[in-house]
Amino acid sequence: MTLHALPVGGRARVQDVADQPLRVRMASMGLRAGAEVAMLVHAASGARIVRVGDARLTLARELAVAITVEPLHVQ
């Protein structure tokens, strides 16, 4: 699934970022393979606000759909 499709309140682990230039940019913000993310907000514009570690990031729709994640199931 993509990060864009993760529901609000959902948690996931980043699997991959679609292309190399974007991968480098996202890694500099903490969004790299293996990082855990939490979905905070689905904005009406399609943007997503996520938490990665102690940081909150706002990602445009185009960025969020380029990031593949594996949902984490909290028990």
- The CATH topology is SH3 type barrels
Find the CATH superfamily.
Ferrous iron transport protein A (FeoA)
Query: Please, how many domains?
Result: 1
**What's the N-to-C terminus distance?**
20 Å
Helix content: 10-25%
Total of helices:
2
Output the radius of gyration: 11 Å
CATH class value: Mainly Beta
Give the total of beta strands: 5
State the major sheet.
Answer: 5 strands, antiparallel
The dominant shape is globular
Report low-confidence residues grouped into runs of 5 or more: none
Order of neighbouring strands in the sheet with most strands: 4-3-2-1-5
**Fraction in beta strands:** 35-45%
Could you spell the SSE succession in H and E letters? EHEEEHE
Describe the structure.
This protein has 75 residues and is α+β, with helices and mostly antiparallel strands. It has a single domain (3-72), classed as Ferrous iron transport protein A (FeoA) (SH3 type barrels, Roll), CATH 2.30.30. It contains 2 helices and 5 strands. The protein has helices spanning 20-28, 61-64; strands at 11-17, 36-42, 48-52, 55-59, 67-72. It has a 5-stranded antiparallel β-sheet. A hairpin with a 2-residue loop joins strand 3 (48-52) and strand 4. The longest helix has 9 residues, at 20-28. The two termini are 20 Å apart. The mean pLDDT is 93.
